[in-house]
Write a structure and sequence with these properties.
The protein has one domain. It is built from six helices and two strands, in the order H-H-H-H-H-E-E-H. A two-stranded antiparallel ribbon has the order 1-2. The longest helix is centred in the N-terminal third of the chain and has 19 residues. It is extended.
């Protein structure tokens, strides 16, 4: 199962980059190359979601941009010498997202297809506030 289509890939990726990464002749995009990269990305995603209950998985529309980012990185790795830092950053964010889902820190139960685990509760975190009643008392 793919989480994104070739059309979605093309809509999300600049045409010049798609041509550079998925073209044998340098002129036109080879859809079969993109399809294979999206299938590979789906395998990566499925690996992360394997232990996640179906009701806690993000909706496919939530996973689509991550599938594109993973596929894009796989295509970029085929082209030695290509500067892939921005592409790698997208891939790495996709993997971090999938890891959070696999760890149960995010679940697919919200109206948008994804909610943080424990949505509806209040979690405290971060640095201590700079201004409190005590620190402002003498002012």
């Amino acid at each position: 199962m793919s989480y994104a289509t070739v059309a979605e890939f093309k809509a999300r990726v600049d045409q010049r980059i798609a041509t550079q990464l998925a073209s044998e002749d340098g002129q036109s995009v080879d859809d079969s190359v993109i399809e294979q990269a999206l299938d590979d990305a789906a395998g990566v995603i499925d690996g992360y979601l394997a232990k996640v209950a179906a009701e806690h998985r993000p909706a496919d529309r939530v996973l689509a941009p991550y599938a594109v980012d993973i596929a894009l990185y796989r295509l970029a790795r085929r082209r030695p010498g290509l500067d892939v830092e921005n592409i790698k950053a997208g891939h790495d964010e996709a993997v971090r997202f999938l890891a959070r889902v696999a760890e149960g820190r995010l679940s697919g139960t919200g109206g948008d297809g994804l909610s943080p685990a424990g949505a509806g509760s209040i979690a405290a975190g971060g640095p201590e506030p700079a201004f409190t009643r005590e620190t402002l008392e003498d002012l």
